[in-house]
Write a structure and sequence with these properties.
The chain is an alpha+beta fold. The protein has 8 helices and 20 strands. Among the domains are: about 5-50 and about 140-235, 2-Layer Sandwich (Gyrase A, domain 2), CATH 3.30.1360.120; about 280-355, Beta Barrel (Elongation Factor Tu (Ef-tu), domain 3). A 6-stranded mixed β-sheet has the order 11-12-13-10-4-14, sandwiched between helices. Strands 15-18-17-16-19-20 form a 6-stranded antiparallel beta barrel. It has a 5-stranded antiparallel β-sheet with strand order 6-7-8-5-9, covered by helices on one side. It starts with a strand and ends in an 8-residue tail after the last strand. Pfam families: GCV_T, GCV_T_C.
C-alpha cells in the first residue's frame, strides 16, 4: 500500500495521474508533462514534495555530529544558509545526496530523498552516538511544497511579507504566508529560480490553495514528477538510483567538490574517499547530446565504434532544447566534450556527442 501525502485529495481533485514513487502515491502529471515543464521554464510550477524526508539534528554538538556523519563541512554553514552534501558509507559509496539547512547555531534540518529516508535516519541515529545532539525524524509531520520558475518571486511576494530580494540562493528564513508559518527556502531541483516551503502537513492543502490562487495571474500550473525529471535532467542534476548509488562514489559522479577533507576531525568514509580521490576513476558522468527525436534512456549502452564503453543513467527528449539529452557513465578515455559516440536505442545505433553539463542554464 503506497503512502499518501497530505495533499493527495487535492491532487485527485485536479485529475492527477498517479504513480508509485519510493513507496508513495505521487502525481506524475496533471495535464501534460510538456505543458508543465514549459510552465516551469517560462512562468511557474507548483510541486508537492512531501514525500521527501526531514530529519532534525539539534543540540550543542549538532554541527560536530553532521561533520562526522556527512562528507561536507556543516559547521562552516552559517545559520539561515543551506548546503548540498552527501552521506556515504565506510567504503565511500553514496547512501544519499542531501540538502542540509542550518536553522540556528544548534539546529539543522537534513532533507533526504524519499527512497532513502529510513537509511539516512538510521545512519544519523547511529552516528550521533557519543555526541551531545539529538536526531529527530519529523518527516510524517512536515509537508514540502515548491514554487519554481521565473515568476516564483512575483507569486510569493503577493502572499508573504518575507524579504525575498535579500533571500539568497541556498538560504532560508522563517516566514508567514497568509497566516501560515513556514520555513521559506530559496532552493529547488529544476534549474530555475524558486522556493521550497516547509509547513506542518495538516496545513499543506490550505497553503496549496493560497499559492494556486496567487499563481493564477502568473501562469502557475501544478506540476508532477514527470516534468520534475526532465527539468532536473536539463539542469544536469543527479537523481539517486540513476546517477548516484551505493556502488558509486562522489568522485565518479563528478561531485568530488562536496567532499571536504580539510574539515577538522574524522568523518565516516574519509579514509576510503581519500584513496578514491587519488585513484583514476575508470568511468565518469558525462552529458550526451543526441540528434533526431529518439532519446537514450536509462540502461541503454553507450558505444565507441562497436565497443561498449558506458551506460546511460537518465535520458529524454529535452522539451526546452528540442533535442535528446542524456547523462551517462562512460570510460574516462571517451569523456572529453566533443567526443563522438553512439547509443544503442532498441537495436538501432544513434549518434551522440559528449557535452559539458548542464545542458540548460537559466539566463
Amino acid at each position: 500500500m503506497s503512502k499518501e501525502t497530505s495533499l493527495h485529495e487535492v491532487h485527485k481533485g485536479l485529475g492527477a495521474l498517479f504513480t508509485d514513487f519510493a513507496g508513495w502515491s505521487m502525481p506524475v502529471r496533471y495535464s501534460s508533462e510538456l505543458a508543465e515543464h514549459k510552465a516551469v521554464r517560462t512562468a511557474a510550477g507548483l510541486f508537492d514534495l512531501s514525500h521527501m524526508a526531514e530529519i532534525d539534528v539539534t543540540g550543542p554538538q549538532a554541527a560536530a555530529t553532521l561533520d562526522y556523519a556527512l562528507v561536507g563541512n556543516l559547521s562552516g554553514v552559517k545559520p539561515g544558509r543551506a548546503r548540498y552534501t552527501m552521506i556515504c558509507d565506510a567504503e565511500g559509496g553514496v547512501l544519499d545526496d542531501l540538502v542540509v539547512y542550518r536553522l540556528a547555531d544548534e539546529k539543522f534540518m537534513v532533507v533526504a530523498n524519499a527512497g532513502n529516508a529510513d537509511v539516512v535516519a538510521e545512519a544519523l541515529a547511529e552516528r550521533v552516538a557519543g555526541f551531545d545532539a539529538v536526531v529527530d525524524n519529523r518527516s510524517e509531520d512536515v509537508a514540502l511544497i515548491a514554487v519554481q520558475g521565473p515568476n516564483a518571486v512575483a507569486i510569493l511576494r503577493s502572499v508573504t511579507d518575507a524579504d525575498l530580494d535579500s533571500l539568497k540562493y541556498y538560504a532560508s528564513v522563517p516566514a508567514t504566508v497568509k497566516g501560515h508559518d513556514v520555513l521559506l527556502a530559496r532552493t529547488g531541483y529544476t534549474g530555475e529560480d524558486g522556493f521550497e516551503l516547509f509547513v506542518p502537513a495538516a496545513e499543506a492543502p490550505e497553503l496549496w490553495r493560497i499559492l494556486t490562487e496567487a499563481g493564477q495571474p502568473h501562469g502557475l500550473l501544478p506540476a508532477g514528477l514527470a516534468c520534475r525529471d526532465t527539468l532536473r535532467l536539463e539542469a544536469g542534476m543527479p537523481l539517486y538510483g540513476n546517477e548516484l548509488s551505493r556502488a558509486l562514489n562522489p568522485f565518479a559522479a563528478g561531485l568530488g567538490r562536496v567532499v571536504k577533507f580539510e574539515k577538522p576531525g574524522d568523518f565516516v568514509g574519509k579514509a576510503a574517499l581519500e584513496e578514491l580521490a587519488k585513484a583514476d576513476v575508470p568511468r565518469v558522468r558525462v552529458g550526451l547530446k543526441g540528434a533526431g527525436r529518439r532519446a537514450p534512456r536509462h540502461g541503454y549502452k553507450v558505444l565507441a565504434g562497436e565497443t561498449e564503453i558506458g551506460e546511460v543513467t537518465s535520458g529524454a527528449l529535452s522539451p526546452t532544447l528540442g533535442f535528446p539529452v542524456a547523462m551517462a557513465y562512460v570510460d574516462r578515455a571517451h569523456s572529453e566534450p566533443g567526443t563522438q559516440l553512439s547509443v544503442d536505442i532498441r537495436g538501432r545505433v544513434e549518434p551522440v556527442e559528449v557535452v559539458a553539463l548542464p545542458f540548460y542554464k537559466r539566463s
